[in-house]
Amino acid sequence: MHRYRTHKCGDLRKEHIGQTVRLSGWVHSVRDHGGIIFIDLRDHYGLAQVVIDPSQPFYKGVEHWRVESTICFTGKVVARIPEAVNPRLATGGVEVVAEAMEMLGEAKVIPFQVAKEEECNETLRLEYRFLDLRRQSLHSNIILRSKVIARIRELMTAEGFMEMQTPILTSSSPEGARDYLVPSRVHPGKFYALPQAPQQFKQLLMVSGFDRYFQIAPCFRDEDARADRSPGEFYQLDMELAFATQDDVFEVNEKVLHQIFTEFSGKQVDAPPFVRIPYREAMEKYGSDKPDLRNPLVMQDCTELFRDSPFKAFAGVVASGGVVRTLAAKGCADQPRKFFDDMIAYAQSVGAKGLGYLRWTGGEIQSPIAKFLAPETLEALKALGGVGEGDVMFFIADQKAAALEIGGAVRAELGRRLGLIDPDVFRFCWIVDFPMFELDDEGKVAFSHNPFSMPQGGMKALEEQDPLDVLAYQYDIVCNGTELSSGAVRNHSPELMVKAFAIAGYGQEVVESKFPALHRAFQYGAPPHAGIAPGVDRIVMLLADEPNIREVIAFPMNQKAQDLLMGAPGTVEPRQLRELNLKVDLPRKFEQAPPTA
């Protein structure tokens, strides 16, 4: 008989009745029924009920056991009495009558419940992540993550992709977020950087003659946390295709994502091909470049209907160069006054000066602003929104960028409050035709998305068009309002590369110094290539129906980019700094008082 177990806790069935088995696991729960002790023993695979009779010599020690202790039991499998059968458990028809017991690892008093899914302080959960990972929901999420990644590998291989690894220690490059820097011991004063993405390496693999590359790639960015973004590090399904167009990238990703979301969820999943929405159209309709298409609300432009309007609040915005946008919501005119007051308060919380509305109810239009609008204006608005009895139109008036951003937030909030968002579907879309350039905060032309992208129209567009009118072969894949990835057809021409960077204010010497490998490689026969990198963490977060990405990562950092389990980041020994030729020069507010005797 095996030293620790002949079976796993989730294995036992009625066909095992009469067999002597050995199980090892954690004490999930303990129940005393008139002297007979019932223990639910848990391992990675499930639960088994163990029965301890008072006649057993180890019975007296039971009162000292604590839940989450690790114990090995040997005993005979018997059928449960009919009234004790648990149909919710795969092992619920049998139990093990213990004949021997060995304590393998005694537990202290646990800081929070493991057997019950109770709310718990997140700091405590992260400090005791090894306990937190025993909880069923989180444990299941990590199992799901493993299965999803394994299936992704199968699907990518079947599509002709070859898995390859790229360096973790590389050079620092201006790719948007801050780098994590690693000092070099053998090259004093110089630093490696952890890769924000394998961007340049995967492009170089295409230049090197490989055709289809993929990798479950770790990426490192020194950026702030969000619900859908883990600070420090994350994993992505990184891929690149040689001799490929945008459509080739879309076809592969639609096939893989549809398969993954169909296999690992019970929800309805959009079938390929996914909807394609130009960036500017997405901003105009949804106020976001990552729209949740489960929400049927769409913004419309009604600016001209308020030009020279008696309603001075809107007319004044239009006269100053601003816009008026409207959202038509069906069947919500019967909402109480508090609903509309709360929506106004919400709009103000996201930067609006207010939120106008018109309610078609009881055969009339009810609204604080209706008395300022002419009958023909009201009729034109009604026709624009396609509204009638029982419907409402909401209005946002501001400068265009602000109006779109506020309108996008109001659209999402209305969708939530009105219950318009179907929780049982996955809606995908591609956002395409991103602008190549934009104006930065100082009014200078800068890259808007990815500096390595191919401009639509090639060199002719860069030379003849206003930079702000140049579109790029850049694209995002979005699911239920969550951006899964950005990608692009790459700029593989050294001349185009130099020209694009020149428009953004970088001379050729910057291109050659910051991206020497790409610039050099593109001069030796670079194939057209394209790629993308859907986020693995976000995919699993959606499949697990979790609101926070930390719930699908085994050992995540907190919102302050701290690993509370391992104590990182932490201080290092002075000798380590000397080896690296470094001195720490802390700002005064971070200086530590010298140790006292």
Q: Could you explain the architecture of this structure?
A:
- This protein is of the alpha+beta class and 597 residues long.
- Helix content is 27%, strand content 24%.
- The chain contains 16 helices and 24 strands.
- The protein has helices at 122-127, 129-132, 136-158, 199-207, 246-263, 279-286, 312-319, 337-349, 375-385, 400-417, 458-464, 494-503, 508-514, 516-521, 536-543, 574-579; strands at 20-33, 36-43, 46-52, 70-79, 94-105, 162-163, 180-183, 191-194, 212-221, 232-242, 268-269, 275-278, 299-301, 323-329, 356-361, 364-366, 392-398, 425-426, 428-432, 437-439, 445-447, 474-479, 482-489, 529-532.
- It has an eight-stranded mixed beta sheet, sandwiched between helices.
- The radius of gyration is 30 Å and the shape is globular.
- The two termini are 58 Å apart.
- The model has no long low-confidence stretch (mean pLDDT 94).
Strand residue content:
15-25%
Alpha carbon gyration radius: 30 Å
Total number of helices: 16
Shape: globular
Number of strands: 24
The mean pLDDT is 94
**Going across the major beta sheet, what is the strand order?**
6-9-10-24-23-22-19-12
Largest sheet features: 8 strands, mixed
**Fraction of residues in helix:** 25-40%
Catalogue the unreliable spans: none
Distance between the termini: 58 Å
Pairing-aware structural class of the strands and helices? Answer: alpha+beta
